[in-house]
Amino acid sequence: MSSKSSVKTPKVSFKEINTIAIPAIIAGVAEPLISLSDIAIIGNVEYNAVEALAAAGIVGSFLSAIIWILAQTKTAISALVSQHLGSNRLNAVKTLVPQTILLNFLLSLLIYFVTAFFAELIFSAYNAEGLILEYTQSYYRIRALGYPFTLVTFAIFGVFRGLQNTLWAMKCSLVGGAVNIGLDFLLVYGIEGFIPAMHLEGAAIASVIAQAVMLIMALHFYIKKTPFHLKLSFSLNPNLKPLISMASNLFLRTLALNIAIYLANSYATDYGKNYIAAQSILMNIWLFFSFFIDGYANAGNAIGGKLLGAKAYTKLWNLSKDISKYAVIIALLLAGICALFYDEIGLIFNKDEQVLILFSSVFWLVLLMQPVNAIAFMFDGIFKGLGEAKYLRNVLLFATFLGFWPTLILFDYLGFKLYAIWIAFFVWMLIRSIALVIKFRRKYLSAS
Fold first, then answer.
1. Can you tell me where the transmembrane regions are (predicted)?
2. Tens-digit pLDDT profile for residues 388-417
């Protein structure tokens, strides 16, 4: 046997990747499943179903935007914990973790009071008016009470991921999802003579309770299973400044991401209530796919940071190839399943004929872009684990303002309506995936 063939290529095993990826997939899809269940249940109420569905979609998008922006400390703490784990220096971040949790809690309180006060102004900016605007305000003011629960939970989930453990987050998310769905049916429709039907407000209350349950479980695992504690040190950890810097760049990146989602929903709302109802379904399915595929991105994030800390560059390069392959396969399987049940999927969320026609006319485009999304999400996850927040920020700013927005304006002008939105998203994802692959090859292929 030649010496070349006898040398084993340094690789992260399939088992090691999936030990992190599979629980992360299950944990990741729990959040969009909560939103999808809300939409499916709300979209089938007995009266004003289209307006209620539109309001839930608008509020859901805004909530996701705020949470994604503020939860970037989750990614930052995950990267720092995984890198210190790889270099056997976890003690250096022991005081950083409780400081990060407190930071998330304080941010959540600030955002709640500001946004709840300006709810009417915020949702008017989405072109919501009349009954839809009324529904968005009442629904949001309840849902927003869950900000502290969600953002503290996310910070703790980041610590778990940095420790190469996504199983604890999965358990929390599964229980939270089950509680949310059960309470949705109970509170939205009510029980005659026992619990009044609360409709949209009932769905909001269910979500807040589910988020509180997830936080309680996360704290249990954090205190009992991790080497960290909740005791605050008044001496700022030296890693707090790099964490805030990383989180700030990721904040700007996620802000650009959510500007794209805001523009999409704003244009759809302007087209009419049937369009924003169809867009709400399409967007939530797209997010479900994204969180599903993001399980492997989480593996890339956790393992990539650890390999960088250990300076194992060849294993890092091989990791990028393997998880990209797995993610594309998952994306194709999901798209294939949805293609088989193309017409039936829309009926789960709404029975309005015009909404279903609009949904079906565009859904194929959402499915077509999934393999491209998979590549972009994979390298997003790896770059976050490597601490490459500045490059991720620049890519999203470029993709949003020089890719998504001009494409949306052009095709909207040509009268493509919902097609304009999803063609713009396709261009957006192509730019992101190409830019990340090129950068990674240039920097880490040579190092390996």
1. 20-43, 49-71, 101-126, 138-160, 172-191, 203-223, 243-264, 276-297, 323-342, 354-379, 391-413, 419-438
2. 889 999 999 999 999 999 999 999 999 999
